[in-house]
Design a protein that fits this description.
The structure holds 4 protein chains of 4 kinds.
Chain A (H helix, E strand, L loop, with lengths): L9 E8 L8 E8 L4 E5 L6 H9 L6 E6 L2 E2 L10 E4 L11 H11 L4 H14 L15 H13 L5 E5 L7 H18 L2 E6 L2 H7 L2 E6 L2 E6 L1 H6 L4 H6 L4 E11 L2 E6 L4 E6 L8 E6 L16 E12 L3 E8 L2 E9 L12 E6 L5 E4 L2
Chain B lengths: L1 H12 L20 E5 L3 H19 L2 E5 L5 H11 L6 E5 H9 L8 H4 L9 H5 L9 E13 L26 E4 L5 H8 L7 H6 L1 H15 L2 E4 L4 H8 L4 E5 H10 L4 E16 L6 H14 L2 H7 L6 E2 L32 E3 L2 H20 L1
Parallel strand pairs in B: 1-2, 1-3, 5-6, 5-7, 8-10
Antiparallel strand pairs in B: 3-8, 4-7, 4-8, 4-9
Chain D lengths: L11 H31 L11 H4 L9 H8 L1 H32 L7 H13 L2 H14 L6 H25 L3 H9 L4 H30 L2 H6 L7 H11 L3 H34 L3
The chains are: A alpha+beta, B alpha/beta, C mainly alpha, D mainly alpha.
Chain lengths: 366, 375, 556, 286
Amino acid sequence: MTAATDNAFVVFDRVQKSYDGETLVVKDLNLDIGRGEFLTMLGPSGSGKTTCLMMLAGFETATHGDILLGGKPINNIPPHKRGIGMVFQNYALFPHMTVAENLAFPLEVRKIGKSEREEKVQRALDMVQMGAFGGRRPAQLSGGQQQRIALARALVFEPELVLMDEPLGALDKQLREHMQFEITRLAHNLGITTVYVTHDQTEALTMSDRVAVFNDGRIQQLAAPDELYEQPQNSFVAQFIGENNTLMGTVKEIKDGVALVVLDDGEVIDAKPVNVSNPGDRTLVSIRPERVEINKDRLSPDAHLVHAEVLEFIYMGDIYRTRLRVAGNEDFVIKTRNAPDQRRLKPGEHIEIGWLPQDCRALDAP
Amino acid sequence: MTMKQLLSATALAALPAGALFAQDLPPCENCADSITAVSWGGAYQTSQIKAYAEPYTALTGTTFTWDESSNEAVAKLRAQSEAGNITWDLVDVEGPDSQRLCDEGLAMEVDHDEILAAGDDGSAPTDDFSDSVINDCFIPQIVFSTTFGYRTDVSAWNGNEPDNLCALFDLETFPGKRSLEKRPKKNIEWALLCDGVAKDELYDVLSTPEGLERALAKLDTIKSETIWWSAGAETPQRLADGEVVMGSTYNGRLFSLIVEQNQPVKMLWDWQVFDFDGWVIPADLPEDRLNRVLHFLHFATDTQRLADQAKYISYGPARASSQPLVSTHADLGIEMAPHMPTNPENQKNYLVNNIEWWADNQDDVEARFQAWLAQ
Amino acid sequence: MSDATSTGPMLAADGTPLKRSLNRALRAQKLRALMLIAPLLVFILVTFIAPITDMLFRSVENQIVSDTLPRTTRALEGWDHNSGELPSEDVFAALTYDLVAAAERKDHTRLGTRLNYETTGMSSIFRKTGRRIDDFGETYMDQFAEATPDLAAPETWVTVMADPGWRADYAAWEAARAAARETGRDFDRPPPLFRLKNGVADILPEAADVYAEFARIAQVENGDNPAEEEPWAPVYLALYRDLMHVGPGAIERLDDASRATLAPAHDAVAGFQSERLADLYLDADKGWGEPAIWSTIQAFSSNYTPGYFLASVDLRQTADGVAMQDEDRRIYIMLFERTLFMSLAIMGACILLGYPIAFLLANLPLRTSNVLLILVLLPFWTSLLVRTSSWKVLLQQQGVINDVLVWIGLVDNANRLVMINNQFGTIVAMTHILLPFMILPLYSVMKTIPPTYVRAAKSLGASNWTAFWRVYFPQSVPGIGAGCILVFILAIGYYITPELVGGTTGTFISNRIAYHISSSLNWGLAAALGSILLAVVLLLYWIYDRIVGIDNVSLG
Amino acid sequence: MSQMDLPPYATPGQRIWHYTFLVICGLIFFFLIAPILVIIPLSFNAEDFFTFTPKMLALDPEGYSLKHYRDFFTNPSWQQALWNSVKIAPAATVIAVTLGTLAAIGLSQDHVPFRRAIMAILISPMIVPLIISAAGMYFFYSRIGLQGTYLGVVLAHAALGIPFVIITVTATLVGFDRSLTRAAASLGANPVTTFFKVQMPLILPGVISGGLFAFITSFDEVVVVLFVGSANQQTLPWQMFTGLREQISPTILAVATILVVISIALLTTVELLRRRSERLRGLSPG
């Protein structure tokens, strides 16, 4: 059993969850979250991430296993005694109360005196720059404003742990980016442990200290954002995080940390073996679009070169996005920076592209 | 409320002869202070309230609750007794129902001479009430009769007016809707009388299977023109509204329609059917309630009180000694005697319900009649 | 799903079956939900479901025959109703004992009424016989009194029959009562109930049985001391029959006091002038000569009977099985048919009137339709009796509608239309009353039909009618279904309105049920009719639940 | 744009049909409303008739009078009936609303075993024909000593009102955002506080309109009270029923008018509540 250290403020210990007794939505989950950490649970819908959050908050009961908070198992503690702040997907602001009443609610149930309550409410409102809105009803606020209030309400009673369940899902892109920044700022300033659930990988990468990628009821990879992006441990993570080109093939041999992969159209490439171990394994080779180079002179000499045919060229402002046919794959995408020296490719053009072997990762075949 | 209090106050003040004071009434020991009485509603119940209940309340302070369920008295008493929870103290029923309640042990048997007041001429209650004491449970109040009323302004009759009962079956001369009771009793007797059966042979004929069918066949001739009533107030109402041109009902109801409400309706006394109506006490009453009821009955059935009732409704008191005291209508001041069913003018042709025959055959005839009605 | 292999139930990480650990986790949750529901569920079960079950039970209950005539039903077991012969004297004797007790308890008229539902005439037979039953056995009473004057004294019977222990108890009780009276205390201890002497029932089975019955009735019903009451005549009949059967040795086995009384009687009975019980019965009512009377008693001697249900569908139970009811008494099938017909007519009228209104409401701008909706909801919220009285006022011959028709000259004053106290009145009034129940579900379904479908149909070239009939109408069918079942369920069980405006031809089966409860007192038949009606309604309820879902009922 | 507007390109036939349809609808509305309204003027009749007298038609003030209302307010049996109704209906409503709301909340939870069957039982008082309910209660309540008591009538009426509470509260709970109660719990409120501070205020419109239905069910109920009640429990509908069965006394029309006014008031209340609840619900996201 893990001790209550800063590295394990929240512990999921072999947690399982089933709703119907037939299928597990969370399978043998083990996860430690450190104090002050901003951890994001990322995954497609139905991957079990929200269930984990709900178990932590106490709204679902683990079918098996323990969840520990500050070293103590909380399985038998009802939600309202857990002292965990939570921001809901739809904000869940009480429509019949004003903003200030919403914020005062957690303080009221904690029997905090009136003056202290008002002071804390005001401070929380100021914190989210909503100081003037205390008398309004939630229905009179915009989505972004409601979001701030929800955040302020989850923080106003100074919980050590805050859970956020896709809190920015309903906002438009700009507002979302702004709020991402606000939330991280607040979380770090206040030193609160945050568990954040989202299916938006950009959000996960920009906000988190660590990201747990969920799929099929399991954590596929738990790592810092850069590591997750740069070094996906399996094909799911590689495909789920960021854009990715994939080529199917078979491992021919592994030697000196380099795998020789025969692609399905017969071409042979070098790749970094990540989770292939034996020759003959089917593999999915992944290369990030921005790591593919079309300027041969920018490539190091040991880079691998592959023939490609341009199928489509899309102008996207800051970058060009080009779709190619590579080794039989017609969805091979490359991204090139919009720079004065950058060529605009034309459909039908035949080019050579290349990449570094360490950028090309041989993963398990899904 | 004020209106009524005023009325009852004047009623009390207006009768020095029969006036009673609290000290004249023997005290009631171990008595409940309220009575739940069951009656028929309408003018009849009002006459009981005026003649018995209000004076009694004035003397003793007893409160009355009235339930207009006499129609369903047998059913409700049976259910109450099955449950062992009798909520009624006093039930006003017709003779045959009292027979049934008595037969089934639902009504209490009483000793009339013991519980009732002697007549003011000194006669013993059983002698004074004589024939109206039809069984051991029945405490008679009135003789009433079921008669016919008809509208006097029916243009389709071409100035004819019915002068005998059989006009009921004469749709040629007297077209229009009839109103008859939704029960076989009286209807089948009338049907047979108009089908040529002599009064003395009525129940003999009815005792044969063909007799009942013959009566129903006669009724068939007017079935399509008949609206059936189950409450005594329906016929007067329909006559007043012009819904029907003639119909049977209790003579008192017609009296108030004709005399009190001045409707263009006349009464047909031909072949009126006499019946007794009176009280029964539910069996197994708790002692205090029983004491109160007996105390009230002693008061309410004395010679004066029964005669008083006739001030409000044209039913004949069941006590012989009350007959001479019947005076004038309380509000209208008219002589009541000519409106009594027992007035010799009115009883040239009359029938008396054969209570025994009906007690024996009620279930059969009722079932057949209801089936006939529904078909 | 991939984990759900073929190796049986899924296991959790610690090896327990997943279902079980899931159940453990859910138990608290379920328990909390049930705790919230439980008070109401118990409440409904006690105040509503139990009464209905209890009433339905009456439709098969038939204890009254075997309770009132225990000896007779037992004695009749051996009688063959097909023989065409009357039962034996033993059966008549058993009936005498039963009837005299029943008449004392005043049960016999009720039994007669019960059996009269099955065979007409029984009520009158039981009444008439009940009046005479006290005298049955009087011949023997007189002859015993002559032969052994002792037997005329009530005290003698107690000596012969009563348990000495009981006599002692009774004496003690009387003493206690006297003492209480003296001191003016309340005394409400009931007297000890009569007990038979040991062995007397072996020797004098019938006499002991009837005397014990007599003694108990004297105590319980009348509050008398058996030692002071003269036994019923049938007790002497029983004694006569016993003494005729017992051998001389039997009397010897009795105690001295009894022997002293009974020995002379035993010697005398052989010389008694006897009389056939059957003749007494036939004299009381010649109906007893009909084997049908006896076979009815026999057929209904069991504690449960299908009789009421058979009667509800115009059949009847005879000793030979089920037969059609006499033609002139068949009304229930007709009443059920009429109930169904009128309910369907009301339902049809509701669709015809409700559909256009719902359509209008669903397709008007919200502001206008909300105002018009109030016109639908106002009748819905108005007292049923108010609406019924309105229709009475409107439909009468001298009512508003006839007045208007006469005034505009459509109808001659002398020939005013008859619109009330018949089916027409019921159908019109109930259509008005139930119309909101059709409009509201229809409206809520129609509101969910997006206008784009009809627009799409029109853009594809459909005429207004085609667009409505092929596109809109099919989508509104679920609303029609919901409304129809709701209206039909409510209509089929209606009571108040048909009672007030239906006359004799416009009434429903409900009115007949009420009639049997409060007027004819045939509660068993009322329960059977009610059961059938309830079954129909529950079937429709089930269908409704299937189609609409009972919690989706909209209440405006 | 409403579907009912007539487009400018409509053919004459379509126009005729359009107006015919509106006329038909108008007639049906007339059929719905007229019977209720017609009794209102009649209740002011100065005569004891139920048709419009010539004086009334001539709008002669002498043709009108308040005497039937006076009778209602001074006649002790009507007053007793009114008083009984006023006593019984609220008591039945309180029972129905309390138990019904709790049960509806229980039923709205996940994992309720036998939910469908329980629901069917709880709704059944609305479905079972009243005469059967009344007969059953009559016999059963007699047996347990409840027949002819206020308690018996109140319990019976509560049972009849419960389905309406269940249905309306369940419907409100369907629209109720579960995350609100979760939010309250996460903010530290215990279940009781959560219920009274968050859930109850929000489902209140549903509870109140369920309560109104239960109230009107009891206030308007006649069959069951005829059987379960006795003389002491005569309610307004009972009094109206016996009156109607025997004669249409104009006093009944006065009572009917009063009841129509009450139902209009109730209807307005419900409409206002519905608007309030839509405002609260409709404007909050999700």
